[in-house]
Amino acid sequence: MVFNNDKSQPFPVPLGILSVWQRSTRDDPLVNMGRDEPLPEEADVVIIGSGLCGAVTALSLLTSEDRPKTVVMLEAREACSGASGRNAGHCRPDAYRGFTAFSRKHGEQDAMEILKSERTVYELVDTFVKKHNIECEWTPRPTYEVCLSNEFQAYSNLAYDNVVKRRGAQEVKVHDGDSAPTTTRVGAAQKAFEWPAATLNPAKLCYAVHRLALEQGGYNVYTHTPAVSVTESEVEESWKVNTSRGSLRARKVIHATNAYVSALLPELKGLVTPTKAQAIKLSVPPAGLESFPRLEGSYSLRYLPEHFYSVAQRPDNSIVLGTSRGWTGMPKALQESLANNVDDSAPMDEVTKNAFSTFSKLFPSAGYDASQAAATVEQTRSGSEARNSTGLEYAWSGIIGVTTDSVPFIGEIPGKAGQYVGAGFNGHGMARIFLCAPALARIVLGERIEDTDIPQAFAITSERLEKLKETIQQTASSPVPDKPSSVTMKELQDPLEAIDLPELPFEGGQNGPLAIAA
Hints:
CATH topology of the largest domain: D-Amino Acid Oxidase, Chain A, domain 2
Organism: Naganishia liquefaciens
Protein name: FAD dependent oxidoreductase domain-containing protein
Domain FAD dependent oxidoreductase: 44-442
Radius of gyration: 22 Å
Pfam families: DAO
GO cellular component, one term: cytoplasm
CATH architecture of the largest domain: 2-Layer Sandwich
């Protein structure tokens, strides 16, 4: 097996601590499918990356009238071992908040299209899961955006008011005053916004999509087969995909590697940044369900755009807690280690302790004991479950692909006819892939990207690439200010939430890591 830990070539690292979702699928035959099977010499289409984007793209190709005869899927590690199998378990469309950043980067019309598309994705996933009777813990439920500071309340109000002016926001309920803590059960809530969303087991959904693709015939999956390069083939109108286990030719190659995409596509270096994120598995609330009834909604608990925690209580009443990548007092070295980091083999202790402590304080009646957080984290460092009554079981990390303009790259790669990309989902792929991947399949089969359903801001074009590279060069050549600029730093490190808020009382506020749309 060939793995490269060089940051200049962001290939996956060997698997370490597994996510809660991966632990639930260990007996699935798809986990290591094809690892010992010989590679074919050629295929009509090769897809690199077996996460949800790759899986849905494969299924969309194979169920098309003009489908390719053969599709080969290559995966460096186990199937669905990247962000699709290691996230926090949400399908949470952005109902309003991203408008501020999207409109500044892409214009108001595109901003509204992006928000609209996310609602469409939620409906597509809901329909898909129900149509195919997929068992993946799919739980439609209200989601609450809980404002825990005056600053974030003002930020949310601005975005909400702008969206209401342009299309109305009938699906969003606003909880002010006493209604906020009463409805959300978060005593510190100053305001809350509520809209429809869902939680799920993303690995089980991904495996189900692969199974449906296999049923179509002509589809083969090869795990533990990292692609190391894609080069021109001696055969006209085809590419040579070189792997650790040999090479094969393909007329068309699809890069569905998200955070790792620049390892094989150097033109995307600096435009898709692998960024480390983390989640935690909590036990059923120690206080018991009589004292702490089930949380029927999912949550984003936000002090600031960069400082937030996601919450999803599973059907078995355990809780998955998405951690923050920025908070007051966060060690600078830790903060700086998150970007350009492909090491998802182990979680970060300080991040685990911060998230567990914060959640315990916000939901004190749940009975979680944060006073023993340090000792518990020590026990869980190897990935084994803690054997005490604190309620913290284990943590894991994952790598998300962050783009400099907040949206993914979809389409045929400029200057490389026959190579395509679906990557850079900014930690928000569950609210984007079910629209982007079918569109990508149609593009591969010859449809113009302008005729697909995706927001045109997602299209990978020469103009977009040049503009983004110019922005990076201008930023790099600018003098470094004594206090980091909220615009330049947020554009590079907090794209989904970028906004001028120069006086935020948060030590990481101007220089904080990415805030995904959880």
